[in-house]
Amino acid sequence: MAKKRNIIVGQSGGPTAVINSSLAGVYKTAKERGFCKVYGMLHGIQGFMDEQYIDLSTQIHSDLDIELLKRTPSAFLGSCRFKLPEIHEDAEIYEKIFQILDKLEIEAFIYIGGNDSMDTIKKLSDYAIVKGHDQKFLGVPKTIDNDLALTDHTPGFGSAAKYIATSTKEIIRDALGLTYNDKEAITVLEVMGRNAGWLTGAAALARTEDCEGPDAIYLPEVVFDIDKFLKTTKDLLKKKESVVIAVSEGIKLADGRYVCELSGGADYVDAFGHKQLQGTAAYLAGFLGAETGCKTRSIEFSTLQRSASHMASRVDVDEAFMVGGAAVKAADEGDSGKMVVIDRVSDDPYQSAAGIYDVHRIANHEKTVPRSWLNEEGNYVTEEFINYIEPLIHGNYEPFMVNGLPRHLVLKK
Ligand code: F6P
Questions:
Q1: pLDDT, mean of residues 64-68
Q2: Could you tell which of 276, 306, 307 is best to mutate to test the pocket of ligand 1, judged by most ligand atoms within 8 Å of the CB?
Q3: Are β-strands 242-248 and 216-218 bridged in parallel, bridged antiparallel, or unpaired?
Q4: Residue 405 pLDDT greater than 90, yes or no
C-alpha cells in the first residue's frame, strides 16, 4: 500500500510576533499541495520525542483561523531549546525519532527556528542520508535577533524592530515631558540579541522628523568601555536635559564578562550553553545615577519586544508566511537538509523572494553587525544600517480586536 503523504511542523527557540505566520504558511501550503495530515509537534523536537503532537486540522478550521494564527504571538505549538546529541554520541535518540516519523508516515519534517534549531535539521537530514531514510528535512528561519547567515534578514526581526523603534520614540517623548526645571534625567533601554546588535541598532529608527532618537547605542559587537560610556553620557548631559541610551543585553567588557554579570545577572544557562542575560540596563542606570547624581531609569523590553503582535510589521508577517510555504514547496519538490532564506530583490520599492541554502552553511553560525555599519566611536549605527532595516518595519497587520483587546488563536488539547 502506498505511504500516506503526511507532514509535521515544529517551532523551536525564542518565539517572535510572526512565528505563527510561518506555521500558517506551512499549514496552508501543505493543504494546497495535497498533503494528507499536517501534524504539529508540541514543544518542538523535545515534545516530539515524547510523542507529543497534534493533527493541526483539529485546531485550524477556516481561513479566519489562519488569519487569527498569523496575528497570534508566541509559539502556538509551544517551543523548546533542545540540542540533539551528535549522531555517534546517542544513536538511540535518532532511532526513536525515525520510528515515530515512520509510524506517522511523515514525508516532510519542517522546523521553524534560529541557528540553534537549524542544528536539528542538519543532524536529522544527515542521519536520514546515512541510514537511507527518505523523509525530507527543511528549516524555516525565525529570530528577532536577525543573526542567521545567508538570509537577508529573519522573520520576526522586522516586527521586533518596529516595536523597539516605536517604544523608543514614546519613551523619549515621555522623558522630555518631565524635564522642566527638573534635574537632568537618564533613561537606559535594554534590548535583546545576545551576540548580535541588529535589534538594538533598530532603536535608531526612532530618529525621525519629530524625534531626535536615542543619544547613544551600544551593541555587543563592540567591547564595552564603561569609562568611555560615562564620559559620553556626561558630555551629553552638558547639552541636554534628557538623555536616552539603548544598550544590548549582550554588551561585554574587555575581560569577556557580560555587563549584566556585574550585578549578578546571567546565572541560568540553556542547552546550547547560552547564558540568560538580563539586568544590563538596570546595572548601568544605577552606575550612572551614582556617578552623575541624575535621576535615572532603566527599561528592559524583555519579552515584550518579541510578543508585540499588535504592532507587527506587515512586511514581516507576509514574509514569515512566505518562507513557511516555501519550505513545504521545497520538501514537496525533493529538497532536504536546507533552510529557506529571504532574498532582497529590490530596495525601492522594497521587494523580496524566497531562496534556499544548504543548512550546513547556516546552523550554529551567527551573523553579527559589520563594524563598518557602526560609527567610529562604536556608539551609533550608520545611515547604511538604517537603510537596510527601514523597509522591514513597513505596514501594519491589524489585530482582530474583541472588547478592546487583540484576539489570539489558542491551542486546544
Ligand atoms: O534567541 C532569541 C532571544 O530572544 C534572544 O534575543 C534572547 O537572548 C533570548 O532569546 C532569550 O531567551 P529566553 O526567553 O529563553 O530567556
A1: 98
A2: 276
A3: parallel
A4: yes
